[in-house]
Amino acid sequence: MSDSEVFLDSFFVARQPVFTRELTIWGYELLFRNSECSLGADVGNEDAATSQVIADGFGLIQEDLAEGQRLLVNFPRNMILEDAAALLPPDVCIIEILENVDPDPDILKVLNTLKEQGYTLALDDYIGQKGFEPFVELADIIKVDCLELSIEELEKIVASLAQSESLLLAEKVEDNEMFKRCMDLGFDLFQGFFFSRPEIIPGKKMSSHNLNRMQLLRSISGSEFNVDDLTNAINSDVSISYRLLRFMNSPYFGLPNVVSSIQQAVVLIGYQKLARWLRVILLSDMCSGPASSELAFLSIKRAKFLELLSLELKSPGLSSDSMFLLGLFSLLDVLLGKSMKNLLKELPIEKDLMAALCGESSIASVWLELVIAFEKAKWETVGSIINSQKLSPLSVARNHLAAMQWANEIVLLSKE
Asked: Start and end of every HDOD domain (predicted)?
C-alpha cells in the first residue's frame, strides 16, 4: 500500500484558510483526526497525529499550495522535543506551539534552535496567559481566539502586544462584523469562516455577467432539457464555450478524440455528465471576490464529497446528482450576495434540497451539517453523524480527502 493510501485510510483532515487583510490566501492550517480513534473524544495521541501529518499529510497537501503560501502544523510538547520539525521544510511549514505546551527550559532551547534554523514559530490560542512571555518573545505569529473573548478582552490583548514584532492572527473569525472589528484592532491575518457567510445588500442587482450564468445554470438544473437549446446557450457565450472546450480536452478527461464543439461533447460524454461539469465551471466563473478561489474550492469540494458519500449509503434518500447539487449550491448566496431563498426560486431543484439550502430541516440537512463540520474540524459532530448514518469512518475519510484533491484540480482547470 502506498503512503497516500495509508494516509487516506487513516485520517480525517480539515484545511482551513488563513487570509491577509486584503482577503488573499496567505496559507492554511492543517487539522487532523485519526479515524480509528473514538471520534467523540479529543485527540488522544497528539504525537501520533502530528507524526502522521509529517509522514503522509504534508506531501499530499503541499501539492495544492500556490507559490509563497504557508502551512501551519500543530506541534505538541513531545514532538517539539523530538525535533520532528526537521522533517518539514522551513520555507513552507510553520511550527504551531499548542496552548497546552509550557515554556520550560527544554522547550525554549529547542524552539530557539528551530528559529536559528530558519523555522517560523506560531503561538496558538494566546489569551494573555501569565508565564507565556518567553513564547511571546520567540513567536513570529501570535494566534488569538476571537470566539472565546469579549471585545474588551481582545482590545486588552492587542494592546499588551503593541511592542511585539509578531504578526497577529485572529482565529475563529465567524462573521464579517468580527473580521472588520479585528481589522480595526490591527490584526494582520485572519482564520475562520467569515468569508463563507453571505453579506446581503438590499436592492443589490446581479451583474449582467452573473445573470447570464444564472440563466444558463437554470437551463441545466432541471430534469427536463433540450440538448439543442443547451448547445445554443453555451455557444452564445464565448468565454464559457472556450473554457468548457479547454476543460473537456484536458488530460483530466482523457477523451480519445479532440472535442471541437459542444455538440460533440454531448455525444461523447452525454448530457448529464456535460451538465454536471458545466455547473462546476459556471459556479467557478461566478467567483469574482477576493476570496473567490477558496469559495469555489469549498463549493466544488462539498459537491464531490456528497456525491461520493451518496454511493456509500444503503438508503441515500437523494440521488448522487442531487447530493452533488446540494454541495455545489451551498454557497451560492455568498457568491452572489443575494438571499438563498430568492436565488433558488430561479432554479428548478428538489424541495428537500431547497429546504436544506435555506436552513430548514429536510432529509438533506444532515449532509450539509456533516460537510460543514468537517471544514470546521468539529470532529465530535462528524463522528455523531457518521455513527447515526451507519457509515464507515475510513470510507468517509477517504472520500473527503479525495474530494479535496479533486476540487483543487477542477478549480485550477476551470480557471485556465
From this structure: 206-395
